[in-house]
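Field reference: sequence -> structure
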Amino acid sequence: MAFCAPALAVTGGAPPATGDVARAIVMLVDENGDLCTATALAPELVLTAAHCVIGPHKRVVKVYQTGQSIPVRSAQAHPRFNFASYAASRATADVALVKLMAPLPAIVAPAELAAPRRVSAGETLTIAGFGVTVDRTPIGLGVPREAPLTVTGKPGSLQIRLVDPKTRNRRAGLGACVGDSGGPAFETGADGRRRVIAVVSWTTAPNDEDGCGGLTGLTPLLLYRDWIVETAKKYNSTLP
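Structure field:
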């Protein structure tokens, strides 16, 4: 499986994110300017991908609605995350929590976690992020976008693959790209509410080549939800 560079955005002409989806996501930016997407779970706590917090870099969370930057107090990757496995395109616990030094503004609306379950092929999940809209360019970076994608293959507890149902990984379509790593994948419940069920981890170009617009790979929260809840408690954060 071919991966994008570690800081993965919604490409292929996806529309701007709106409503609760747009209000739940923030930008996570390190001192080198590398950008990932994160999801607010509480006023001072965001969820992202573990590969987005590797290395002793200073990081801030940026709120696109206000332009505010909030320094990161600490970041904790899941203890079973293995960067060597990630770099070798093997599934790993690519999940992390980031504690902020101050609360997010009220315009940011923390998202709920989905109940633990396995997804099924053919389901629709919605990804969201701040990544580029054209691979290998800065075009679109920093603008929140969302895209409904279809679960494909044989989804399990370690990895979920999504595809644009119109292009099916045969030609360029909607999907994650540079800047969307760590962003949420939402399920839509019977009550119409969107809840986070996975985190964006990797992407490919069509036909499993390097790039974007083919497959979008997710790390499901199924095995890691309890760790998220317990770690949030250690951070004195109450999840919605």
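Note: The chain has a mean pLDDT of 92.
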